[in-house]
Specification:
By secondary structure, the protein is of the alpha+beta class. It contains 10 helices and 4 strands, in the order βαβαββαααααααα. Strand 1, helix 1 and strand 2 form a beta-alpha-beta unit. The longest helix has 30 residues. The N and C termini lie far apart (40 Å).
């Protein structure tokens, strides 16, 4: 039987992608990486679609307990798999059946069902839309701000400084990438002091420091300080996003 773990991460430098590399680093697990080049549409190639039929990163394969390969896609699903299989000491999770476990799942789903989609749309209308549509920008930025306010209020009462209980969990890890990229969606993180303090606290963790730079350096904070570089990066991103949408529309 093949040895475990035998983790192969397929990812790119996005808030979704770094959730998984940070999770792996926090758990101290060995893994190999394939950099999925999004502008070249690698995520739409047949070999990738065998792993994730939806053609999105991140995706992951591993040797399962039966000795056969298992595929995982959707970041929340991957995170749950990793702690279920490889976190018996509950470094970044809680035992199933406990109050803390269900609270952790609450916040994980809050990210995946709310902040992820809403901030994603704020990103799109702020950075990628071919024309400026004020309603779209305002709608999704305001909803993202509302959701950040929910997080900020919750963190104000946290004794540990993390979302759940006495430790950093997969719920915190899931939120960090989007929150660290708030400005890309047109959100000013300083409006949310408790959330900003949490973001800074997370950024100092060794697992976050290492995992955020997989498969390429995490440069989003640098862009915020360099308007010329930001403009160039945004234009390139807009072009490949629009090209990808056009390609998808033909299928």
């Amino acid at each position: 039987m093949a040895s475990r773990p035998d983790i192969h991460l397929l990812t790119s430098q996005t808030p979704n992608g770094i959730k998984i590399s940070i999770t792996l680093e926090e758990l101290g697990l060995p893994y190999t990486v394939t950099h999925v080049d999004l502008p070249k549409s690698m995520q739409k190639e047949p070999w990738f679609l065998e792993i994730n039929p939806n053609g999105r990163i991140p995706a992951l394969t591993d040797t399962f307990t039966d000795g056969k390969t298992i595929r995982l896609f959707e970041s929340g699903s991957i995170q749950q798999y990793l702690v279920d299989q490889y976190d018996p000491e509950h470094k970044i999770s809680y035992p199933k059946g406990t109050r803390e476990y269900y609270e952790m799942i609450n916040w994980l789903f809050f990210l995946n069902a709310n902040i992820g989609p809403m901030q994603g749309q704020a990103n799109h209308f702020t950075r990628y839309a071919p024309e400026h549509i004020p309603y779209g920008v305002t709608r999704y930025q305001n909803e993202t701000r509302r959701l950040y306010g929910v997080l900020d209020k919750h963190l104000q009462t946290s004794k540990s400084g993390y979302l759940v209980g006495d430790r950093c969990t997969i719920a915190d890890i899931a939120h960090w990438g989007p929150v660290a990229a708030a400005f890309w969606a047109g959100i000013e993180i300083t409006e949310f002091p408790a959330l900003q303090a949490w973001e800074d606290r997370m950024a100092e963790r060794p697992g976050v420091k290492k995992g955020k730079d997989v498969p390429t350096p995490h440069i989003i904070k640098e862009l915020d300080k360099d308007p010329a570089r930001l403009k160039e990066y945004a234009e390139k991103s807009k072009k490949w996003v629009q090209a990808g949408m056009a390609s998808d529309a033909k299928k």
